[in-house]
Amino acid sequence: MKNGILYFLFALATIICMSSCGINSNFMLKTPRDFQFDSIPMAPKVDYVIAPNDLFSFRLFANDGFKVIDLAAGTTADPTAGNIGANRGIGQSFISYLVRQDGKARLPMLGDVQIAGLTKLEAEMNLEEAYAKYYVNPYVQVQIQNQRVFVFPGNGADAQVIELQNNNTTLLEAIARAGGIAERGRAKRVKIIRQTKEGKDVYQINLSTIGEGLKYTSMIMQANDIVYVEPVPEISQGVLNEVTPIVALLSSAFVIYLTINQLK
């Protein structure tokens, strides 16, 4: 009888120790204690560089913006003209173009054009030069369409992909659109991971105080940024969730064992 209880307690302790290895195993992007975070920029250091699989659209004007060229319809119009009905649809055919894996996109009249590796401004200048063969003083406006940031608000199940609808979306706006920091989220440990030409920069921001937190809420997001709010470890709850089913099984087995001994 006494040995049976000792065996039961030993088995229970062993299971708890083994289960604790899997507690909070869903944590991501851990950094060592001596990790050196990068200096926090309030705005991106460089403009976004167009990459393969990006989608973009553009508007083409001639005569330095005096005429709108609708490449889809093959028409032109004076954007200052008062006859809205006559100009209806002119310049409004926004067609999305995919940047292929080779970095090129197939564009009207131009064929395959190298787009990947260029900033928005560089792409506009290159297209203006290319369309200068067909139009007088062309003017191009490029819009990159699939820019987004990834927000993990402190609970992995609530992660959100946030579309950047403008070029000045702030950290506060991105977190707000993701539903705010989750109950388990640690506002004092918010990591921003950003792709740069040199690699990836990692910033850590403390949003729990009015001083530093208020300052960095205005940090401008860049396409493909990862905003990761570190969750608060739930050791006790995690151990309980892991161990409860096993303890119930062992308890049932132990009751059966005691019952058999009593019958003897």
Approximate helicity band: 25-40%
Would you report the number of β strands? 12
Write down the CATH topology of the largest domain: wza like fold
Written as H for each helix and E for each strand, in order along the chain, the element string is HEEEHEEEHEEEHEEHEH
Overall 3D shape: elongated
Give the helix/strand class.
Answer: alpha+beta
Q: For the record, what is the CATH homologous superfamily label of the largest domain?
A: wza like domain
Report the major sheet: 5 strands, antiparallel
Q: Name the CATH architecture of the largest domain.
A: 2-Layer Sandwich
Q: How much of the polypeptide forms β-strand, as a percent range?
A: 15-25%
- Helix segment tally: 6
Mean pLDDT: 78
Description:
By secondary structure, the chain is of the alpha+beta class. It folds into 3 domains: 2-22 and 235-263; 55-144, wza like fold (2-Layer Sandwich); 148-231, Outer membrane lipoprotein wza domain like (Outer membrane lipoprotein wza fold like). The chain has helices at residues 2-20, 84-87, 120-131, 171-177, 210-216, 235-263; strands at residues 55-62, 67-70, 75-77, 97-98, 104-107, 111-114, 139-144, 148-152, 160-163, 185-196, 199-205, 226-231. The strands form 3 sheets. Strands 1, 2, 3, 4 and 7 form a 5-stranded antiparallel β-sheet that branches. α1 packs antiparallel against α6. The longest helix is centred in the last third of the chain and has 29 residues, at 235-263. It is elongated and about 105 Å long.
Concise description?
This protein is of the alpha+beta class and 264 residues long.
